[in-house]
Amino acid sequence: MPKCPKCKKEIDYLTYYAYELTKATVGIPEGTDHMEYSHWDSLGTTKGEVNFECPECSEVLFHTEEEAKKFLLEQQTPLLEE
Questions:
Q1: pLDDT digits (tens, 9 = 90+) for 55-70
Q2: Domain count, the chain
Q3: Does residue 23 lie in a domain region?
Q4: Which residues of 3-24 are buried (b: 16+ CB within 10 A; e: fewer)?
Q5: What is the 3-state composition of the chain as percent helix, strand, coil, each rounded to the nearest 5?
Q6: Are 12 and 60 in contact (CB under 8 A)?
Q7: Is residue 33 one of the residues assigned to a domain?
Q8: Distance, CA of 44 to CA of 34 (rounded, Å)
C-alpha cells in the first residue's frame, strides 16, 4: 500500500478536488414543494487546477489522473514542494 510522503501514513485512496461542470434532471415531485435532482452526469472539469490530496493530511500530491493512478498502483512517489 502506498504511503503519503508528508505524513507517512499508508493510504489506499486519494481525495479529488476540481471545478466540475455537471448536468442533472430537476423537477418537483407530485405532492411536494421541493426541487428534486436526479440523473447526475459529469461533463468534465471546467477551470482551475485538479488536485489529488492525501486523505489523512490533505497534502496535494498530484495534479493529473495519470500521476495519481501510478501512485495508487505504487509505481510513482510524489515529489513534495518545499
A1: 999 999 999 999 999 9
A2: 1
A3: yes
A4: ebeeeeeebeebeeeeeeeeee
A5: 10, 35, 55
A6: no
A7: yes
A8: 28
| pTM to 2 decimal places | 0.70
The pLDDT of residue 58 is 97
Residue 21 to residues 42, 44, 63, Cα–Cα distance (Å):
6, 6, 18
- Under DSSP, is residue 6 helix (H, G, I), strand (E, B) or coil? coil
Element (H, E) at 23: strand 20-27
The amino acid that residue 80 corresponds to is L
Residue at 81 is within a domain: no
The answer to whether residue 4 is domain-embedded is: no
Domain around 57: 15-72
The residue with cell 405532492 is 31
